[in-house]
Amino acid sequence: MDGTILNHLNKVSICTKEIIDDLREQGIYVFIATGRAYGEIESVVPEGFQVDGFITSNGMAGYVGEEVVFEHSLSLELVETIIEKARENKVYYELFPYENPRVTLTKDKHYVEAEIREPKPESVGINEWLSRKQAIKEKINWNERIEGTKFSKFYFFARTEEHINRWKQELDLLKEEIDFSTSISSKHNVEVMVANVNKATGINQILQRFNLSETEIMAIGDSDNDLPMLNFVGHAVAMKNAPDHIKEIANDVTEYTCDEDGVYHYLKSKFNL
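Now predict its structure.
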């Protein structure tokens, strides 16, 4: 979603919604594959926005309507271990339980809030910055302890690339002790999921639900967490605003960016709508 159907103000345009409606009326399936948790989607899409299914949290969960097609969960042991290490490294984090809103522990609030202090670092994208500001203000539950037993993902952020890169190195060391996956969607973040889970594995599980093959699928993306998906599908499309290494592995590149409704224009042209 981010950098693809979402503009940099974290909104899906009406024309993008309408082109998706047109495709679905023609019998073409449309799915969202996103790093966002399922509960984050409603606030960024227009009223009446509908697709045939969602792959969320970088492949950790899949939904068709009210049906939960699959859900993977981080273990409580891993969650507690990573929070301890995040505290040692003073890394901004949001934990996403399936049953409850995202969580950050109260004892970590001082340094988490400090990472979102003004001014915005020049290298941080405005969409990610606005999301973090909104999370601090109204989305995070500041709890004394971890609640729930099922967790869809961890999101980590740092205002400098040096800080987040040090944290990625810490996570790589931890992988030698506990098996898990990481995914990156910007220079300032990293996310943690269950081992061997990504957008491609999630898409594959949804395709099985619809008896579809990856050769029949086109995917559009813009960042590193889209690479497994773009390498998996039959036709890969990179956004104009994607970095060059994403464009290099794609079959096609949109003419317009996410801020110029690039997905709308591409689909309109591709399907002669």
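The first helix runs from residue 14 to 25.
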